[in-house]
Amino acid sequence: MREDFDSREQSELNARLDEWFSAYRDACPQPEPSAGFMPRLWARIEGRQQLQAVVAWRRWAEAFLSLAAAASLFLVLLQVFPQSTPSYYHSTYLDQLSEEYGPDHMLLQDVALADAQTPLPRIPAAGVEKQ
């Protein structure tokens, strides 16, 4: 009995498969063989490959554009939110001179001290003879 069931089931499955194949043949017309069949087929294949290359370049361009936009936004944010600057950048020349121990004050004291310790040599005036 099991053998009859298997053969009956197998014949039903084969009949359904034949129906599907006939429906597929009806839905997809078969190309007519002609001399231009293969050249047209290769032209379609190469057209798709070129389209894929264009899509790949487009993806790279979109990625580069996104990166450029992010970098521009980052640079704008750096300009909008400036870093804290030392107070001597905002002070005036008179404010710096009035400070008792400013950085320029110490430098000028060292220069004045060095000039006082080393006397400058005297250069004789032109036309005056040395005796």
General description of the model:
The chain is mainly α and 131 residues long. Among the domains are: 35-83; 84-117, no CATH class. The protein is 69% helix and 0% strand. It has 4 helices and no strands. The protein has helices at residues 2-27, 37-80, 93-98, 103-117. It is elongated and about 135 Å long.
Task: Describe what is shown at a glance.
With 131 residues, the chain is mainly alpha-helical. The chain is 69% helix and 0% strand.
Keywords:
single chain; 131 residues; mainly alpha; 4 helices
Report the mean per-residue pLDDT as an integer: 77
Overall 3D form? elongated
Spatial extent as radius of gyration? 47 Å
Report, as a whole number of angstroms, the end-to-end distance: 150 Å
List low-confidence stretches: none
Indicate the multimeric state: single chain
Largest sheet: none
Given the structure, what is the number of helices? 4
Structural class: mainly alpha
